[in-house]
Design a protein that fits this description.
396 residues, 3 domains, five-stranded parallel sheet, 15 helices, binds adenosine-5'-triphosphate, flat, 8% strand, Arc Repressor Mutant, subunit A, binds magnesium ion, Rossmann fold, single chain
Length: 396
Amino acid sequence: MISFPRLKLASELAVALQGKAGFSDAHNGLFLAAPRRTGKTTFLRGDLCPALEAAGIVVVYVDLWADAARDPGQLIAEAIGKALQPHLGVVARTAKSAGLEKLNLAGWLHVDTSKIGQVDGLTLVDALKALNETAGNPVALIIDEAQHALTSPAGEIAMSALKSARDQMNRPDEIQLMLVMSGSDRDKLLRLVHSNGAPFYGSQIQRMPLLDQQFIDFLADLIEAQRVDLCPVDRHTLNRAFEGFGHRPQFFMEALGQALSPLSSFDGRFELAMLDAALQRQRDDESQMESDYLGLKPLEQAVLWRMLKLGPRFRPYDAEALAFYRQQIGTKVTPPMAQNALEALRARMPALVWKSARGEYAVEDATMHRWFEERMAAAKWPPASRQTPLNLNGEF
Ligand SMILES: Nc1ncnc2c1ncn2[C@@H]1O[C@H](COP(=O)(O)OP(=O)(O)OP(=O)(O)O)[C@@H](O)[C@H]1O
Ligand SMILES: [Mg+2]
């Protein structure tokens, strides 16, 4: 598999996280947002983790989507516990042989790793301190899909515990705990930082840079090295195609494989075939959203419509919302009816709606907003069923 290394970005972020980048605030927590399938996880695991490890930092990575059925707080705690385990073994042995039980070791020796999984804010803080002290190095905790933590009270407690650990362990001149949180939806991540009561109030959400022309140059170099017949590659057109694919490498690479295949039915330059494939991909994405929407019951459609229209200002049960639903479906809608519709939207696989532990709702896939805006601008909203209605009179 071809993977483009993003070493420069990784080393810049590693420096910023350690508080060595002048005016950056990353040492207080780095919040990175980028759309779905644009390479967040690959970057965090493949580039950022090694860059931090090379700087002598102990890295704990946890993906809160890895197991959606498990509680996010528990997943975080377990990841820290796992990283702690090997160190505790060594420390326990050394402590015993050196009679260290008598020393006062800042409260980490009593950490019971089997209990770290049972979310208790204090235990998380202790576990992080213990990891830091036993490893003798700063710790970086990378939480992928961090917005998922806000979907359960235990996840919220875990986030507050992490904030507290950060405040206890870091001093302006000495950073011992680095936090990196990523997510595909800026609005959801914002809930971690934007209000006074949010755990990381005061931090900013950064847009994680998308793969760009450098990625295309990397691929073009490979193609030119392997296929002399295609030299020179039209990098500009290839980059336009990549933009058309929404900067999503997986879909782009798939199409590239086909365009370069001897079996490709496209006559002419492969770069143009890629532009074509990008357009096709956009159409497929849109028709998928359209058929998802059309497959919903009328009230579910109305609720989703309202959510797309209002974004973060969406309130499911206020008088205006209920009036809006009524206007769309033609009958009175009560709050329990709207709630059932919301639950149905959440329960679908894949889910269309996201809900925080505080009862805030958002669309699961933020690209739906763009689809909605574009259709609105083109006066093509709401999507209409393409099926011709059944003719019950038997007349054709
Ligand atoms: N630097 C890269 N070079 C080549 N391919 C990449 C690169 N980064 C990501 N990809 C490919 O793009 C796809 C999506 O990557 P990844 O899972 O990292 O994205 P993501 O933003 O975390 O997605 P999701 O929103 O689903 O979590 C993967 O198939 C991966 O192999
Ligand atoms: Mg990911």
